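Re: the request from the purification team.
They wanted to know what the chain is likely to look like in 3D before they choose a buffer screen. I agreed to run a prediction and write the result into the notebook, where they can find it.
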Amino acid sequence: MQIEIVTTQNENLNETGFGTLKACLSVFDSIERIGYDVKLNICKSKRDLEGIVKKKPDLVILAVKYISLQNGNNVWLSEYFSRHGINFTGSSRDVLRFDSNKISAKLYLSNKGIKTAKYFTAIPEQYRCASELPVKFPLFLKPTDAANGNGIDDFSFVTNFSEFESKVLSLHNRFSTTILAEEYLDGREFTVSIINKPNNELIISPIEIVPPESKNGLRILGQKVKNDDSEELKLIEDDEVKNKVINLAINSFLTLGVRDFGRIDIRANKAGDYFFIEANLVPGMTYGSSYFPKSCEIERALTYDEVIQLMLESGLSRTKPKIPPNNCINADC
């Protein structure tokens, strides 16, 4: 059984992925301990990808969604390997768009009757005053396509038009994208890791995330908090809360059409309503800190290696049997 891990020089990518090279090496070491023949590929060009296709591996593990070429174009790996008939982990290109674009996921799910926070998009100088904004203050602002807390800090929480204009301009200058403005949800924050086994049994691991309290009394899960690992990850003790979180996560996961695995982020308001926030379909896999393996550890007492093994099961179940030369299956060749 030959497995190839595909990543790229992704430290500067805003998109989600397994993480830095260190995280990919953790996944590599785990797969090797499990007993598979595995190789880690840091791909920079189509030639690198072509080399993987020629080897016809049993499974390609996509540690990132795409690689960026020197000409500025992106090669989406799920699309590329699908076109070449190579088995790969994770979701299709069409589904991965829900990870890359927060708005498309919110719009799709809200049209299916799944609760998401009220929102609108903005660019600098699009709105002239507070009365023109589609959603009332307080608001929470973030880039439409960034992950890992990029662009999120205490200033993401805005209560007036001056703060709104300032944060929109700052995010637009940094990320060159439209800005997502959501109603601020003043309740608890959760994430749910889901692994879909070959028999369609879902392994569900919900946890609560509690960021440290900042000087203004907010608990914001931003880039600095994630980089510092200063948030608390904990079991959801209340069964009623846990069931609501799980049901929303499952509905979101299935409605989006996620394959193999994914992580669904959820937030509540103080009234006890729960809302889909975003989907992470190539979740971080940094040993000891990333939410996907940590939630499986906290909720189910699974080791890192056990999580990796479960994540591989559906992909390996799709492996096609090798055909001997000259199709001589039952003969001496």
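For the purification team: The chain has three domains: 2-89+318-325, 118-183, 187-303.
Please add any questions underneath this entry.
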